[in-house]
Amino acid sequence: MKKVIVAAVVAAVAAFIGHRFLQLKEMALTSRDVPVKHLNCHYLKNIEYGAEDITILRDGLAFLSTGLNYPGMPSFSDENEGNQGKMYVLDLLHPRPTPVELQIRGELDLSSFNPHGISAYIDEADDSVYLFVVNHPHHKSKVEIFHFVEENTLVHLKTITHPLLHSVNDIVAVGVESFYATNDHSFPNEALHFLTVLLGLPWCDVVYYSPKEARVAADGFMSANGINISPDKRYIYISDILDHAIDVYERQEGEQLVHLKSVAVGSLCDNIEVDHRTGDIWLGCHPNGMKLLMYDPEDPPGSEVIRIKNIHSEQPVVSQEYADNGHVLIASTVAAPYEGKLLIGTVFHKALCCDLK
């Protein structure tokens, strides 16, 4: 009788694991291919090792984080040849916009600088520009705060670490030293995180940090990835990349977040950028997650840009604006619009500047 029970339990566990692996394949969109849909684009000069995140100020200055080296992801950068993480700035109002490397001053170890998600904050008191950068030195998670000054320079002001900020992916600044940050892992340990994904446990979260407090502001994500804010600062948008959805939250008094809705996007969407004029949501996405994880240069992961219009209406309009099979652009992560232009960045490949008009 015991043997029968043991056999039944083993069979049940095997069936459950098999079912979960099938669901993981669906989650990763392993069978998805997208037809090519190109825009009039050209490669940005000087960007050879990805531009994982891009954010654009209202005056047309774009900041780019490059050279990300992330566990489980391919990387074309080589720290031994001086290709470690760097920050660039790009003036989109220039007739021929060209990324220029930002010089970093201050007490920051540039040899281990590994920038990921970024966010800019403008202090209305004096129009000072602060750049928040997620940094993974030696695969840890830190948030670096910089002051952007003239002559293409970032002055390092502060490094923030906290136990709640254990697997930070992206960030949106809401003050000179305050921000929301996404954790894309439920645990810092890769094995434990994979177990939660295998079991379908939505244990990732979003953390609010200020000098006075740090706390979980929202949870229940399979993997919280990109995050951004509406032009009027009332709403926070979060990409749950494994759930193929964008979650909309309302900011309330005391930086409390209230979930309003989820919008299905049908792709593995990474970073979120918001058109400062229209409020449209622009997403850099991975059409097939398995191709990204199991990188094959003969069959590279593709790129996809998705746009959401009227996200707060009862019927948001979700549209595909760009798609490539990986032969022009590999593994897109961000799509940042500005006055008829669109910058598309990637994990480890190149970056594009495209015409929308």
Give structural notes.
This protein has 357 residues and is mainly beta. The model has no long low-confidence stretch (mean pLDDT 92). Strands 6-10-9-8-7 form a 5-stranded mixed beta sheet, with no helix packed on it. Strands 1-25-24-23 form a 4-stranded antiparallel beta sheet, with no helix packed on it. Strands 2-3-4-5 form a 4-stranded antiparallel beta sheet, with no helix packed on it.
Write the layout of secondary structure elements.
Blueprint: H1 2-27, E1 40-43, E2 51-56, E3 61-66, E4 86-91, E5 100-101, E6 103-105, E7 115-123, E8 128-135, E9 142-149, E10 153-160, E11 168-173, E12 179-183, H2 190-198, E13 204-209, E14 214-221, E15 224-229, E16 235-240, E17 245-252, E18 256-264, E19 268-274, E20 281-286, H3 289-293, E21 303-309, E22 317-324, E23 332-338, E24 341-346, E25 352-355
Parallel strand pairs: 6-10
Antiparallel strand pairs: 1-25, 2-3, 3-4, 4-5, 7-8, 8-9, 9-10, 11-12, 12-13, 13-14, 15-16, 16-17, 17-18, 19-20, 20-21, 21-22, 23-24, 24-25
Features:
mainly beta; Neuraminidase; 357 residues; globular; 3 helices
CATH topology title = Neuraminidase
Low-confidence stretches: none
The whole-number mean of residue pLDDT values reads: 92
The biggest beta sheet reads:
5 strands, mixed
CATH superfamily: TolB, C-terminal domain
Number of helices: 3
Q: How much of the sequence is in beta strands?
A: 35-45%
Q: What oligomeric state do these chains adopt?
A: single chain
Number of strands: 25
SSE pattern, N- to C-terminal: HEEEEEEEEEEEEHEEEEEEEEHEEEEE
Helix share, percent: 10-25%
Q: Regarding CATH, which class?
A: Mainly Beta
Number of spatially distinct domains: 1
Give the strand line-up of the largest sheet: 6-10-9-8-7
Second CATH tier, the architecture? 6 Propeller
Distance between the termini: 73 Å
Secondary-structure-derived class = mainly beta
Family: Belongs to the paraoxonase family.
InterPro entries: 6-blade_b-propeller_TolB-like, Arylesterase, Serum_paraoxonase/arylesterase
EC number: 3.1.1.2
Cofactor: Ca(2+)
